[in-house]
Amino acid sequence: MKVKKRGKYYHYRFEFAGAEIRRSTRTTNRQLAEEAMRKHRRDLERGINRVDKPQKMPLFRKAAQDWLDSKVGLVPATLDRYRHQVALLTKELGGRLVCDISADDVNELQRKRQDEGRAPRTINYEIMTLGMILRSRGLWALIGERIKSLRQRNTVGRAVSKEDEAKLLAAVGKSDSPALLPLLVLGMDTGLRASETRALQHKDLELTWDSGAVVSGRLIVQKSKTEAGVGRTIPLTRRVCAVLTLWLSRFPEASPSSFVFPRHRIACRGGKSQHHLYAVQLAKPIGSWKRAWKHASAKEAKLSYRWHDLRHTFVSRLAENPAVSEETIRALAGHVSKQMLQRYSHIRNHAKVAAIAALEGEVLTPKTLETESESAQKSAQPTPEQLN
Fold first, then answer.
1. Which residues pair with 220 in a beta bridge?
2. Residue 261 and residue 200 in contact, taking contact as beta carbons nearer than 8 Å
3. How far apart are CA 77 and CA 200, in angstroms?
4. Residue 377 lies in a domain
5. Are 182 and 245 in contact (CB under 8 A)?
6. What is the DSSP string of 185-225?
7. Cα–Cα 20 to 30 A to 142, which of 84, 209, 285, 369?
8. CA-based nearest residue to 99, from 66, 145, 55
9. Is 124 helix (H, G, I), strand (E, B) or coil?
10. Distances in whole angstroms, Cα of residue 377 to Cα of each of 49, 79, 334, 347
11. CA-CA distance, 384 to 325, in Å (whole number)?
12. CA geometry: angle at 335 spanning 200 and 241, to 5°?
């Protein structure tokens, strides 16, 4: 190993693995040149012996952004959710070194989110994202065993009763959001998930018009979170046709590729008596309507239904009718597993009573069957015919 000055700068030379290494240090300081030579040789020795260089631990905000940048090829909805989680975590931990985050810090974050009223599933998703970020730096294994996921509610939800449905319709009718009523009726009468409703385009609707009104039709689900949900066809009830007539008339310039519920803003005229839509973007889907739904359902109607309960209502009303097969339910609702159908067993009393009656050799008419099952099901849901 030699260091020699050539012209203005020092150069070094040494042999490694049978090869001669020559470099200019671009410095006039001999001590720095010797240090650069030793470092170069150490790097070569690490490489040939497969010894990784120790990584400098960045701040959490940098580690989180690097992890987010590595998530390529994901669907936009998943990326948006990851971005949201990274923003929340960066607000809490952004200024900390990523290696300085302990299990106690994670447990404290869980408690804080609980105090804020976040749902266990929401908290678990945030902690899962934090775990993936730390795992990308090889740090989660050190603390992961001390982190316990919160217990989530695994119930499928609850169906909206007739009485509550009337309250919801009245409350939604007073909402500042004109889109909330057609969204509510569509969700309850078709069982669409919120993401499926948001993705609906005009070309997905097959409507029959008469005298300026939709009199019948069906929709085809082109985008769904499950493979079984894609391509399913759902006939429209009369009240869905009615609300679509009014809603679609707001967008006369819509094309087949326009979204049924486009992004827009709302202005009130004459107090709250009239609502005007402006800044309509037909090529972009509507954002979230959680705030409008929460205000209408919780504050106005004084009820505690989730939006997903509308889908549960749709499936429940199908399941309570013994004439509707499980295959038909799956065809209309998309992915409904056998385990999920078992959760609807509490509303299939008609079929249960019929099965026991068959063992006793008794033939029950639908009218008698309905009468006997009412005592076992106090909160009976309306039949599919009443949806119209």
1. 233
2. yes
3. 15
4. yes
5. no
6. HHHHHH---HHHHHT-BGGGEEEEEETTEEEEEEEE----S
7. 84
8. 55
9. helix
10. 73, 43, 26, 7
11. 13
12. 35
Burial, 326: exposed, middle or buried (Cβ in 10 Å; 0-12, 13-18, 19+)?
middle
Instruction: Based on the fold, state whether residues 298 and 166 are members of the same structural domain.
Output: yes
CA-based R_g, the chain, Å: 31
> Please, which residues have CB within 8 angstroms of residue 335's CB and are 6 or more apart in sequence?
224, 226, 227, 228, 229
Of 300, 303, 276, nearest in space to 179 by CA? 276
Q: Are residues 179 and 132 in the same domain?
A: no
Instruction: Please check whether residue 84 lies inside any domain of the structure.
Output: yes
**Angle (nearest 5°) at CA 97 between 94 and 99:** 125
pTM of the model: 0.63
**Which parts of the chain fold into alpha helices (H)?**
30-48, 60-69, 76-93, 103-115, 120-135, 140-143, 162-173, 180-190, 194-198, 238-248, 290-294, 308-319, 326-333, 338-343, 349-359, 366-374
Residue 181 lies in a domain: yes
Q: In whole angstroms, give the CA distance from residue 8 to residue 29.
A: 10
Q: d(Cα 242, Cα 37) in Å, to the nearest integer?
A: 81
Q: Are 188 and 264 contained in the same domain?
A: yes
3-state secondary structure 44-82: HHHHHCCCCCCCCCCEHHHHHHHHHHCCCCCCHHHHHHH
Beta bridge partners of 232: none
Pairwise CA distance, residues 124 & 113, whole Å: 10
184 and 284 housed in the same domain: yes
Q: Which domain holds residue 106?
A: 60-146
Pairing of strands 213-220, 205-210: antiparallel
For the sheet with 213-220, list strands across it: 205-210, 213-220, 233-235
Q: What is the mean pLDDT of each run of 10 residues along the chain (388 residues)?
A: 88 83 88 89 75 72 94 83 94 90 92 91 94 91 87 75 95 92 96 94 96 96 87 95 96 96 84 76 93 92 92 87 81 75 60 66 50 44 39
As for how many domains the chain has, the answer is: 4
User: How far is the first Cα of the chain from the last one, in angstroms, to the nearest whole number?
Assistant: 90
